[in-house]
């Protein structure tokens, strides 16, 4: 049975119990969340992980890190380093978005070595397989796609991004909208090209039931992709994006009825003023299932600093009800990220997630935040470093300051306000 099947039969699985322990909530809370679809536990039956996480309502906000090679640069060991860097920095999942001739080998190693959830986008590998046969994505058949989904599910992938909401109707609305950036989703662009070339409805929409059958067999969570997500703030919340979201709501219900867990992917580039609206609209249309957002990036000009723009949007989105933040790295829009970019991206998203959890008064966040405040009052540097989002960096900065054994820092030195008030109260 899938996690959802078990929940519908009021059976608490080991995975549900593990999530309850991690979140410090009752097992019944997790079971009811999975039963309603408001909580997902991506956990392929073929792969045993060291860490099990739940995503969804009233749980702590989770972070995903995208890794993977490009056709221009393929190094398996480098991708494994990114994986380990992401996990060490605090990511709860990774998505292998590899392209190129080493795509299968990289996925195999990632699945072997990742202690956290692993996601993929099957149409990427389908497109690569076609290219090796001297074909284009427009030549894809549903058999080609289902073969990839089956192979990835058998290998242990926990959640898959599938763009079944990209349809003739949503794509036509996009073209009539005259967007600034058209479509920036790779999977979305593949399907639009396929539909234009073949003059038919998307095979991922028309054969959605067959896709669900495979996912159900392995308890793979479907991450319904946002192929129409805005790639420019000027395009946010337009007809194409909303049309796709309405379709995703219908596909969500079909997946839940089939016993398949669901998360919904969201934008993208969204101005600050529209972030909360986007989250609430998705929750309303898609039956309150977990919402997974890329950033969102709140402006289009932060090249080199997009992790900051994404963290700003991510904090607002998470506070408004988003459950899962896909990190953005400083190299977004510029190049393939390095391991250091991965660390910075995860850390920025963790700050966003923690800030939202603190504002929502999640006990773990309130407790940790208070501990840091008390450590600062006591000038307890060991505890401050331990409570930091990036202890390694905090330790390095402290050591580089050459303050020695002094209790204050080099910002104020002997004029430290905290030290002075401590002396007065003592």
Walk me through what this model shows:
The chain is an alpha/beta fold and 426 residues long. The chain has two domains: 304 residues, Alpha-Beta Barrel (TIM Barrel), CATH 3.20.20.540; 62 residues, no CATH class. It has 19 helices and ten strands. The protein has an eight-stranded parallel barrel, surrounded by seven helices. A two-stranded antiparallel ribbon has the order 1-2. Strand 4, helix 5 and strand 5 form a beta-alpha-beta unit. The longest helix is centred in the last third of the chain and has 21 residues.
Number of strands: 10
CATH homologous group name of the largest domain: Radical SAM ThiC family, central domain
Rg from C-alpha positions?
Answer: 22 Å
CATH topology of the largest domain: TIM Barrel
Largest beta sheet, briefly? 8 strands, parallel, barrel
Can you tell me the CATH class of the largest domain?
Alpha Beta
State which percent range the strand residues make up. 5-15%
Query: What count of structural domains?
Result: 2
Shape type: globular
Give me the number of helical elements: 19
Placed side by side, the strands forming the largest sheet appear as: 3-4-5-6-7-8-9-10
Average pLDDT number: 96
Give the uncertain stretches in residue-range form. Answer: none
Structural class by SSE content: alpha/beta
- One letter per element, helices H and strands E, the order comes to HHHEEEHEHEHHEHHHHEHEHEHEHHHHH
């Amino acid at each position: 049975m899938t996690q959802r099947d078990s929940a519908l039969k009021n059976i608490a699985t080991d995975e549900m119990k593990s999530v309850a322990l991690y979140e410090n909530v009752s097992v019944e809370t997790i079971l009811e969340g999975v039963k309603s679809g408001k909580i997902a536990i991506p956990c392929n039956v073929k792969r045993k992980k060291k860490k099990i996480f739940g995503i969804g309502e009233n749980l702590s906000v989770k972070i995903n890190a995208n890794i993977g090679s490009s056709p221009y640069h393929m190094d398996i060991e480098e991708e494994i380093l990114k994986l380990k860097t992401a996990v060490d920095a605090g990511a709860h999942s990774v998505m292998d978005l590899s392209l190129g001739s080493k795509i299968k080998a990289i996925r195999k190693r990632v699945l072997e070595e990742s202690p956290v959830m692993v996601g993929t986008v099957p149409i990427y590998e389908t497109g690569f397989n076609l290219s090796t046969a001297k074909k284009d994505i427009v030549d894809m058949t549903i058999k080609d796609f289902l073969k990839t989904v089956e192979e990835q599910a058998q290998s242990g992938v926990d959640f898959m991004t599938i763009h079944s909401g990209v349809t003739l109707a949503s794509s036509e609305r996009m073209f009539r909208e005259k967007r600034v950036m058209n479509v920036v989703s790779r999977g979305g662009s593949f399907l639009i090209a396929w539909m234009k070339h073949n003059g038919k409805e998307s095979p991922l929409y028309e054969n959605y039931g067959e896709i669900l059958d495979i996912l159900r067999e392995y308890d793979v969570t479907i991450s319904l992709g946002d192929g129409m997500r805005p790639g420019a703030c000027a395009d946010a919340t337009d007809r194409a994006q909303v049309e796709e979201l309405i379709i995703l709501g219908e596909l969500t219900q079909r997946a839940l009825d089939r016993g398949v867990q669901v998360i919904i992917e969201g934008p993208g580039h969204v101005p600050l003023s529209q972030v909360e609206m986007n989250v609430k609209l998705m929750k309303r249309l898609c039956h309150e299932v977990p919402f997974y957002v890329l950033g969102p990036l709140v402006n289009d000009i932060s090249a080199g600093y997009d992790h900051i723009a994404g963290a700003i949007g991510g904090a607002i989105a998470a506070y408004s009800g988003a459950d899962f933040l896909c990190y953005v790295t400083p190299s977004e829009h510029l190049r393939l990220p390095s391991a250091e970019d991965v660390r910075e991206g995860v850390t920025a998203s963790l700050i966003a997630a923690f800030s939202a959890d603190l504002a929502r008064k999640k006990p773990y966040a309130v407790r940790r935040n208070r501990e840091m405040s008390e450590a600062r009052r006591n000038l307890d540097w060991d505890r401050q470093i331990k409570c930091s989002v990036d202890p390694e960096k905090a330790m390095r900065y402290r050591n580089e300051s050459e303050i020695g054994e002094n209790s204050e820092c080099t910002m104020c030195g002997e004029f430290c306000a905290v030290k002075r008030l401590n002396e007065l109260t003592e």
